[in-house]
Design brief:
69 residues; mainly alpha; 3 helices
Length: 69
């Protein structure tokens, strides 16, 4: 697990983009892993919460708009 947290520390901003994209397309266990990484100090907990919420919300809105047409 230490190697994974080191990898997260190395790629910082890219990890937030990955969380956003994953949550926009689908929800699952990756947001939970992001929470664990934030608890371990590898990510900022506030930013993880905002990114996961925004990705989930905007993904739902986009799927609704596509399905409505």
């Amino acid at each position: 697990m230490e190697a994974t947290l080191a990898l997260i520390n190395e790629y910082g901003t890219l990890i937030y983009l990955l969380l956003f994209g994953y949550c926009a397309l689908k929800s699952g266990s990756l947001p939970l892993f992001g929470g664990y990484a934030a608890q371990a100090g590898a990510l900022d907990v506030g930013l993880v919460a905002v990114v996961v919420f925004a990705g989930g919300y905007l993904g739902d809105e986009a799927r609704f708009a596509v399905a409505r047409r």
